[in-house]
Amino acid sequence: MRVLVTGGAGFIGSAVVRHLVLVRNYDVLTVDKLTYAGNVASLATVENNPLHRFLQADICNRAAMQEAFDSFKPDRVMHLAAESHVDRSITGARDFIETNVVGSFTLLETARHYWQDLFGKAKTDFRFVHVSTDEVYGSLGKDGLFTEETPYDPSSPYSASKAASDHLAKAWGRTYGMPVIVSNCSNNYGPYHFPEKLIPLIVLNALESKSLPVYGNGANIRDWLFVEDHARALDLIVERGRIGETYNIGGRNERSNIEVVKRICSIMDTLRPQKAPHERLITYVRDRPGHDARYAIDATKLEAELGWKAEENFDTGIEKTVNWYLENEWWWAPLRQGYGGGRLGLLNGSG
Ligand code: NAD
């Protein structure tokens, strides 16, 4: 099996690549532009594996995508490349429109021509999985869950750009008959998460006794999924998902942001005790504009049809994650220096 993974040097993409190469023994081509969020160090465990190849390229570049498809000849495409940080989309939406909308369009067009050539030769076992977010559905009130039928109602430039790309992917399925599947996932956490996102930011700021910024009153709720559970779900979807369908992926692990931050503080109190508890560092900051109150996923379709279940509950997953950051300074220290770690106001993005 030959799988082309876009965005494979990112947080979730690298977990997918590690899973496909190390667990499934598939041939994988990672295509990644290496923006600030892309990091080849996240692929260190597959770097010298003959099953893995890496191509630095922009999904907006049609000629580069054509060359990648023609030379690698994938059976599957898993499209994860995106600009993914909500706060960055608020201060500068252009890159989000370019990569998430124009880039997804370019990739879909390249894949369509490639697939149509194969189709002409009667080889039809090609699949394209477009990986998206539950943020396209907007915000929930206190009750209810996002299902695959929930109408789209995105709030941020990020979620609007992802919604646009979901519609393009579905249209390429309906109009051209291309074998497309869309997945919409809740917030991920785990190893190799870029240190601007809520969980790694809190762990690393706590480690350095810096303030722990929390938006508003911290009541916003997210449904957390361990990144390796997401990678397994995507593997099942690309192999056994029904063409033309959408699958929601979620961990049934709803937590408010302040609960998450306090849980990390208590783990840090045990692992790296300080004179006073880490909770003293919590600082409430002005809320993000358009901040969705609650996301929660109903993953029944994925569970019932494909037999997937999240293996990691939040309490064990968050401990593993904190431990990973404490043990892998080699990975995060260069990023944190480059990024000016610990800045207030940058947290709690899509991931
Ligand atoms: P990430 O920001 O960690 O990684 C994105 C990767 O895409 C990076 O390696 C980056 O270099 C690459 N990239 C960006 N622009 C590119 C371009 N023009 N051409 C080629 N490569 C490019 O993101 P992530 O958190 O791993 O998210 C991956 C996908 O999953 C995204 O599509 C995101 O919308 C979706 N998603 C994320 C979450 C989450 O919690 N992180 C939840 C649901 C869905």
From TrEMBL:
Keywords: Lyase, NAD
Entry-linked InterPro entries: dTDP_Gluc_deHydtase, NAD(P)-bd_dom, NAD(P)-bd_dom_sf
Keyword Cytoplasm: no
Reactions this protein catalyses: dTDP-alpha-D-glucose = dTDP-4-dehydro-6-deoxy-alpha-D-glucose + H2O
The UniProt record lists the keyword Transmembrane helix: no
MF terms (GO), sorted A to Z: dTDP-glucose 4,6-dehydratase activity
A Pfam cross-reference name: GDP_Man_Dehyd
EC number of this enzyme: 4.2.1.46
Gene Ontology BP terms: nucleotide-sugar metabolic process
Residue ranges annotated for the NAD(P)-binding domain, each copy included: 4-321
Domain of life, per lineage: Bacteria
Reported cofactor(s): NAD(+)
Family stated for the protein in its record: Belongs to the NAD(P)-dependent epimerase/dehydratase family. dTDP-glucose dehydratase subfamily.
Stated name of the protein: dTDP-glucose 4,6-dehydratase
Species in which this protein is naturally found: Neorhizobium galegae bv. orientalis str. HAMBI 540
